[in-house]
Design brief:
single chain; alpha/beta; 7-stranded mixed beta sheet; 7 helices; 20 strands; globular; Trimer_LpxA-like_sf; transferase; nucleotide binding
Length: 340
């Protein structure tokens, strides 16, 4: 019975691996009719997300990571109220009709709904869930081992099982606990990240200047949970600690200015608590200090910093700089592998 019950899982895994191998064979090559979709259409929530998707598609085509000879499009949802997948589908079909007329009916089309910002997986919020790196075909990525995706780690650094490091650089004196997520970060100074820490850095363009901000919290924090009044923010939790207590630790006052956006929907998502810095490494170091202050119940004042919410970080995000940072890491890894 045990062997029989395991068969469906094995069959699904084998089928997935076959499809991945087939897709790998098509990457960077012109596809013949019927080998792939004629059109791949991706939906975006707004103009900024549309730009981010187009830039990443361009990079992937340049690096020959996608099949060639296919028409790739990004269609942005109309501004205003959310229209859901159904409304987004209708808008995408209208865009296709404008581009191809009645001819689009003869095409095989893959429509991928990827609008919206991931509040459950915020490291995918900036560049989109559709472009999130997944550890397919990487046997060392499992619950009892760490998963390293396109990152450069000093041989003296340590990463505990269950943690994911993506598009990051870790120095020699960095220790990452279990079940952490580190994304887009540069940690060069001595740092000890407690288990279940979440750290994600974003490049920002503010007043035409390049800045950086790093969101740091717990992987189990509910960023979507919201309250309607300032008196109720004690119901929110940051790394398992009452959010009101965290504000005391950071020497921040409870006012409406503490939150961006809708003042009747107060959450960790729109709380202005993350410092803006001039360098990526300083940004990570500062946010780790605020995180450690909560864990150690020791004061760390954020008063002297310009503070942003995650919501605002996504508004100011500099997609081009984040892609450039990832590309630099990719080139370094490629060069190092070529010398082995």
């Amino acid at each position: 019975m045990a062997a029989t019950s395991a068969l469906p899982g094995v069959s699904l895994r084998e089928a997935t691996q076959r499809r991945l191998r087939r897709f790998s064979e098509l990457r960077g090559k012109p596809v013949a009719a019927g080998e792939f979709w004629d059109i791949v259409a991706i939906t975006a929530a707004d103009d900024k997300q549309e730009l981010a998707y187009k830039q990443q598609l361009s990079e992937k085509l340049k690096k020959k990571e996608l099949p060639l000879g296919v028409q790739y499009h990004v269609f942005v949802d109309p501004a205003g109220a959310k229209i859901g997948n159904g409304g987004s589908t209708l808008c995408a079909l209208r865009c296709l009709e404008k581009l191809y007329g009645d001819e689009w009916n003869s095409f095989t089309i893959l429509l991928i709904h990827s609008g919206g910002y991931s509040q459950r997986l915020p490291n995918a919020s900036a560049l989109g869930k559709i472009f999130t790196a997944l550890p397919f075909a990487i046997p060392e990525c499992s619950s009892n081992k760490s998963c390293i995706i396109q990152s450069i780690l000093d041989s003296r650094s340590s990463v505990a099982p269950g943690s994911v490091i993506e598009y990051s650089r870790l120095g020699p004196d960095v220790s990452v606990g279990e079940n952490c997520i580190i994304s887009g970060s540069y940690i060069i100074t001595t740092a000890v990240l407690s288990a279940h820490s979440f750290v994600c850095s974003l490049s920002l363009k503010m007043n035409r200047h390049l800045k950086y901000s790093t969101m740091a919290c717990g992987v189990q924090d509910n960023l979507k949970k919201n309250v309607k009044t300032l008196s109720d923010i004690k119901l929110l939790q940051f790394f398992g600690v009452c959010f009101l207590s965290c504000l005391d630790i950071w020497n921040l006052k409870v006012t409406e200015e503490l939150f961006s956006g809708n003042k009747t929907c107060l959450s960790l998502w729109n709380a202005r608590i993350f410092p803006v810095c001039s360098s990526l490494s300083d940004s990570v170091t500062t946010s780790l200090k605020m995180l450690n202050a909560v864990q150690n119940k020791s004061a760390f004042s954020l008063n002297k910093y310009k503070l942003l919410s995650i919501e605002e970080m996504l508004f100011y995000k500099d997609v081009e700089d984040m892609i450039t940072y990832r590309e630099q890491i990719f080139l370094e890894i490629t060069l190092e592998n070529s010398l082995i």
